[in-house]
Amino acid sequence: MLDSQPPDRQTIADRLAGVGYVADGALATALQLMDLLQRPLLIEGEAGVGKTEVAKALAAVHDTRLIRLQCHEGLDRADALYEWNYQRQLLAIKTREGLDADETEAHVFSERYLLERPLLAAIRQPVAPVLLIDEVDRADEEFEAFMLEVLSDFQVSIPELGTITATAIPRVVLTSNGTRELSDALRRRCLYHALDFPDVEREARILLARLPGIDTTLALQIARLIERIRKEELTKTPGVAETLDWAAALVGLGVTRLDEARETVFETLACVLKTREDRARIGREVVDRLIGKVA
Ligand SMILES: Nc1ncnc2c1ncn2[C@@H]1O[C@H](COP(=O)(O)OP(=O)(O)OP(=O)(O)O)[C@@H](O)[C@H]1O
Ligand SMILES: [Mg+2]
């Protein structure tokens, strides 16, 4: 805890900016509520809008551990919660041959043989960590069901050991790209924030925060051009990571104004457009037209 009074949203935004994350007011409010109500925050948005980075920035702000559960198809309890170390259990059973069977059973189902996975690890941290459940829409719906106990009660039931309750309530961030509909039960337990691509002003601030030394006018021009490019019909809309790569490339190549470096802008579009179709769609004339509007 940084202070006893919950910080206001401007303070939250300032602290995030201090670790390089530029949040808008709505996200700062969502994070404020997350702390106030001690509820998980579900962040939904397109690829590259800065969902995962929110959790990393939160961990940096609170100077605490980031525990990450990367979701994927087939993710199960053993990957997410805990599993027993079967090999060590078997060895122990062998060495205890001839001893009391009940005692051996109690022994091998004790803490020593438990392998904790991210969800259990998160609730057992002495200092509240940030738990990132990333791309939850990639996991199967059944996975959500057993995650709910952790998200609503911050506890995990292990039949052989009993119920383990959180020592400190973790800050939980879930992200989703919306590739499938999440269950109502999961949504009900979380606060919700829809994260969009940043507007021009915020994207320029992101460039200034992440690329120290970039010229302010150039940052604004790049942010405006990216906004224009995103409005073109593309198969893969560039995210903030692409903007950052592109800006770093342009700065590295000595560009100071986009309108004075049209050829370089065109040649470096590989940082931003990642499919053959999109490269074909944004030809030299389109670049000229778009630069005309941002300069
Ligand atoms: N608001 C922001 N402030 C600072 N940097 C940002 C911001 N948003 C995005 N970034 C940068 O953009 C990169 C991409 O963001 P991130 O990985 O969080 O996107 P994502 O929404 O999780 O994408 P995906 O759905 O593909 O996982 C980050 O590494 C970070 O450097
Ligand atoms: Mg992500």
UniProtKB/TrEMBL annotation:
One example GO MF annotation: ATP binding
Domain AAA+ ATPase: 37-201
Top-rank taxon: Bacteria
InterPro entries (UniProt xref): AAA+_ATPase, ATPase_dyneun-rel_AAA, CbbQ/NirQ/NorQ/GpvN, P-loop_NTPase
SMART domains with a match to the protein in the record: AAA
CDD domains (alphabetical): AAA
Signal peptide as annotated in the record: none
PANTHER family found in the cross-reference section: MAGNESIUM-CHELATASE SUBUNIT CHLD, MOXR FAMILY PROTEIN
Protein name per the record: MoxR family ATPase
Organism, as annotated: Methyloraptor flagellatus
